[in-house]
Amino acid sequence: MKPRRLAIMTPLEEHLKTGKFDVNQKDADCSNRTPLHWACQKGYAEIIRLLLEHGAKGTALTTVGWTPAHCAAECGRINALRALHASQVPTDFKDKYGDTPRRIAEIYGHQECVRYLLQAEAELAERRKNGELIEEEEDVDYDCDDEDCFESDNEETKSVMVSKIKQTDEKCKPDKKK
Fold first, then answer.
1. Is 176 within a domain?
2. Is residue 173 one of the residues assigned to a domain?
3. Alpha helices in 26-149 (DSSP H)
4. 96-134: b or e for each residue (b if 16 or more CB lie within 10 Å)?
5. Among 35, 61, 92, 141, whose CB has the most other CB atoms within 10 angstroms?
6. What is the rounded CA–CA span in Å between residue 123 and residue 130?
7. 102-140: per-residue pLDDT in tens?
8. Full-model pTM
9. Residue pLDDT, tens place only, 1-36
10. What is the CATH number of the domain that holds 96?
11. Could you give the CA distance from residue 36 to residue 161 in angstroms, rounded to a whole number?
């Protein structure tokens, strides 16, 4: 049984409902990560759900082709991977180097994520086979490095969304082994 959501809206939820900004805004200073990438990196499952409900693209790519699932896998955020998969977001795209989120989880030693992603990949393959999964392909120039390649900088969007999710320039730290 799913826990009931409280009727109280969070400030983020209230801000999302205004529709005054692009939930897919790319952060040009951080490899074109979107708010969804940051939420996945931090493992914020409820924020992931909210962003997806308000139109965030689950397969948005960074400059090296990382999806939000790659960010979650790098940091061992299984709850983020579960939130993406439960929302029907493919979690098996390859980046510019051919690495899937599962491979990233393997590199960083996140075995629980690896096991989960193996299961998710099997489910995705079955859904593709049955025609149940329609994926948008994104035309990406991975070598693009000038400012014209990035979407316009909306400072209000950046300051509200990114500051709510990321901590200044802090890279994720893998969870300590027990």
1. no
2. no
3. 35-42, 45-53, 68-75, 78-86, 101-107, 111-129
4. eeebbbbbbbbebebeebbebbeebbeebeeeeeeeeee
5. 35
6. 11
7. 999 999 999 999 999 999 999 999 999 988 876 654 545
8. 0.73
9. 445 455 556 888 888 888 888 999 999 999 999 999
10. 1.25.40.20
11. 10
Looking at the 3D structure of the chain, how many domains does it have? 1
Q: What phi, psi does 136 have (nearest 5°)?
A: -90, 135
> What range defines the domain where residue 78 resides?
8-119
Q: How many residues appear in the chain?
A: 178
Extract the tokens encoding 156. Answer: 């209000």
Tokens 């998710």 correspond to what residue? 120
Q: Is residue 178 part of a domain?
A: no
Could you tell me the two tokens for 52? 């997806």
Residue 43: inside a domain? yes
